[in-house]
Amino acid sequence: MKIRLTYIVIATILVLIFVLQPQLLFIADKIPNTTTNAHGVVIYYMDDTIAEELVKGNINWVRVDATIPHLNNIVPMANAYGIKVLAILDYQTMQVYGNNFTLQEWNQTVEMYVEQYPTIQAWEIWNEPTIFTYGFNNGSAYNYYLLLKSAYRIIKSINPNAIVIGLGGVYLEDINWVKQVISYGGLNYCDAVSLHLYPSMVTLTGFGDLYPYLYYYTINSYIQILKNKPIWITETGLMSSNTTNYAENMGNQSQYIYTTMNLLKSFNIKNVFWYAWQDSSTYGTWGLVTVNGVLKPSYYAWKNTADE
Predict the structure, then answer these.
(1) How many separate helices (H) and strands (E) can be counted in the chain?
(2) Strand boundaries in 12-66, DSSP class E
(3) Are the C-beta atoms of 167 and 129 separated by less than 8 Å?
(4) Which of 20, 63, 204, 254 could potentially form a cystine with 301 if both were Cys, beta carbons 3.0 to 4.6 Å apart?
(5) C-alpha dihedral over 288, 293, 294, 295, to 10 degrees?
(6) Alpha carbon distance 58, 300 (integer Å)
(7) Helix, strand, coil share of the chain (percent; to 5)
(8) Average pLDDT per run of 10 along the chain, which is 308 residues long?
(9) Nearest-CA neighbor of 113 among 137, 85, 140?
């Protein structure tokens, strides 16, 4: 999860939207429909009570870091309740190598995980790769392309039906980096790509809620370069109250959910994950349930926006 966008980026976006090219908000074609429909949450632990609440809430996917402790807990529970798993192969997965890892070590690790967890339906290649640089993923678009290419080939050789998601949840300011990945052939080595959408600093006093315009602009901008590749939103969210030192993203989660989901569905984007399932005393009130597991109004809003 990324907490903020820079003031320079936001200022540039607002100029582009309201002054230079407002038409870009509405020129994109819809994303091609896919058979996948993920109405999910980011989660770190599951038990029977949580799994039952997920099912009752029309939540049919969970997204989790690919580490052995996480997957050993979540995958059996998800299988038992008919919930699909999107696992993230990223810096959490590779921490066993300390402060560095090679491409060969990445390939060995990917192979081990895909073989050990054959029921996982989708694998996301890294989380926010331009932010969380680590080891071979040093921020270079070319190195990320190599990670994506080899992971795709390994995953498909073991489980041809698994979905491979590239780009790892990029933001608007990552678009030039994404263009480089595409120029190397990155779109040939993923079934879909992922974006992350957060209101961040665009909810400004006196300007109203500007995040829908930012989202329109972001999605349109990516559609222009993704060559009809399906888009997944593997993180979006809003904190419901200020319980941390984060200044951004305080507001009405339910209102945000209805606005954002209606916008995404207008683009035919139906694979969306909420960050996160549960509030945290450390990271804030992002959840659909409280720290004590009490269902929040946003739980019901998320339930209501699922496609039947």
Answers:
(1) 9, 10
(2) 39-42, 61-65
(3) yes
(4) 254
(5) 30
(6) 10
(7) 45, 20, 40
(8) 50 51 53 78 98 98 98 98 98 92 98 98 98 96 98 98 98 97 98 93 57 93 96 95 62 92 96 97 92 97 91
(9) 85
